[in-house]
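To assess whether ligand presence alters the predicted conformation, the chain was also submitted together with pyridoxal-5'-phosphate. Input:
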Amino acid sequence: MHIIASQERSNPDPRVAGGRLTVDLDALRANYRRLREVAGGAEVAGVVKANAYGLGIDKVASALWAEGCRAFFVALPQEGATLRAVLPEAYIYVLAGLFENGSADIFHEFGLLPVVNSRTELSIWEAHGWDGDVPRPCAIHVDTGMNRLGLSADEAIAFAADNALTGAVTPLLVISHLACADEAGHPLNVRQLESFQAVRGAFPHADSSLSNSAGTMLGPDYAFDLVRPGIALYGGNPVAGERPMLPVATAETRVIQVRAAKAGETVSYGAARKLSRDTRIAVVAAGYADGYPRSLSGSGVPLRQTLAKGGEGFVHGQRVPVLGRVTMDLTMFDVTDLGEEVGYGDWIELFGPNIPIDEAAARAGTIAYELLTSLGDRYDRRYLGAEISDG
Ligand SMILES: *Cc1c(COP(=O)(O)O)cnc(C)c1O
């Protein structure tokens, strides 16, 4: 049970938290329904690894369950154990598969389904797997071109032939993962699709699954029996330009001081930003320790290097730029153009409905996935909407 305890996060008292993170569960559920439309008849699983991309696996998974989601993917067995306490009846697949040191016992204890990635893991599961309705249920991961995890296509086909004779394990699902799904025209997509089609034929009794969020947007050829979206559920747009997903996460931070600085003075570490005008500076209680990346440091700061743009916040209906270097716990914004409007105790949006998460990430030279999973534990987390079904 210590596995579960170590995953619990304590929410700070809202009166003393520097930031607040609002997670809109109704928007999450609407995104799930939208993905079900896009996926045609395919089942839509929920990828909830890394604490549901930082947003809280217990609340997120319960909301998806209420929407009819029954299959979930986590990265690690410890995450599967946490999820099991929330959803007693879900199919929980563990992408990292089995570890060599007796992890199969944990899979048994919590009823987790390993996504088996190698012959070695197949042997472990054959020897130590649990028996549900079928002997030693699992998913088989085939690498069709990503060179990350999985059996090669040839290994998988050879294994399928052996296993058809021995029944050593029961593959419920055969999966592969696309490397370039966010680039619809990339030639690797079609190569992976063809390779996957060849492999799935060797597992006539298993369902098959190829697509993450971006793959789901590639159309019905890529949907197979089940799709595995993560980021699109959380409001990230896997493919630019499509009708956007609804924003789910809003990160805000409080202004703890507003100060006046003169033209010619400098702001933050390294004195890297020299002010060209008299400036009102709002200092907020969040920094890179809260997942607001240092690479969002303001314009004129050399460490931004190749990045196109510095960060922007949103307050009183207006965007305001980051000034100088983002620091561990504090960030400065230029609120001069808002006059006296911004003051002590106001809140500045870091990303959310007014600063799309994909834009904030791009400004930082990263992706929405990294922004979400870096948020950390210091936000007061608030959940809007219905986590459980009305009916
Ligand atoms: C993380 C992950 C997903 C979900 O990817 P998104 O791009 O967030 O939709 C699906 N499948 C596998 C194997 C993954 O590792």
